[in-house]
């Protein structure tokens, strides 16, 4: 089975025949057979040769790059071998026709809200559930995408207010802060959301969809806005549950974070712990309500952290 490979240290990627080698600063080499790579996530300073690039492109393997703060910087995105002209035309048509775009935007938000409700039910936050359900009911009367986004934002704001009741005392949420995050919970949210965004890009790449044509978020230059639409649906199930598990089980502590100049960042050990649990969360099976069968969320089921 193919795996995600997470590279948390500085180093190089080199190709020898059909194997990619990661060489760290000490010169230690770790082989990564190309047939086992699903995606590569790089959190360190990574250099790679043109021969390595050719091999990754041939096999359809993307590399996602993250900056010092853990935010997504960009991807090496192989040639669009899997894009379909017919699908792209249909995507564009659904964006240009207001009623079709509005219908899809509502479905994205409904999915996101239902997953938020699932988390609140798990932790018996019934008062928040009632508030969110009331807000969700406003969706049926919306006539604009901006109104749909407003409803999603209000639901998520209400949801975040429950974090201090779900998380341990030392993990105080307080309020959302970004670029850079100001405390440990915001750090985990930003790190996890960036990770899910890049995971979604990988999955879109393996479909025939164009990642730049979206319906809830406005398509803009230099971003894959369809990944934002889709990732929002899965944040509660994947990112938030990863955070709840790691913090409530005592697997993350202050020693896994670096506080400096009014910012809070995961250190290398903290990133590795998050990545491993994130993958385990991705690879669990869920019971599909419509087909009444257990399904594996992603198309891969293993990971390797370097």
TrEMBL record:
EC code(s) of this entry: 3.1.-.-
Cofactor(s) needed by this chain: Mg(2+); Mn(2+)
Binding site for Mn(2+): 152, 217, 232
Enzyme class name: hydrolase
Organism domain of life: Archaea
Pfam families associated with the record: Cas_Cas1
Biological processes annotated in GO: defense response to virus; maintenance of CRISPR repeat elements
GO molecular function, one term: metal ion binding
The keyword Acetylation is annotated on this UniProt entry: no
Family membership noted in the UniProt record: Belongs to the CRISPR-associated endonuclease Cas1 family.
NCBIfam families in alphabetical order: cas1, cas1_HMARI
Biological role stated in the UniProt entry: CRISPR (clustered regularly interspaced short palindromic repeat), is an adaptive immune system that provides protection against mobile genetic elements (viruses, transposable elements and conjugative plasmids). CRISPR clusters contain spacers, sequences complementary to antecedent mobile elements, and target invading nucleic acids. CRISPR clusters are transcribed and processed into CRISPR RNA (crRNA). Acts as a dsDNA endonuclease. Involved in the integration of spacer DNA into the CRISPR cassette.
Description of how the protein assembles with itself and partners: Homodimer, forms a heterotetramer with a Cas2 homodimer.
Name the UniProt record assigns to this protein: CRISPR-associated endonuclease Cas1
Organism: Methanohalarchaeum thermophilum
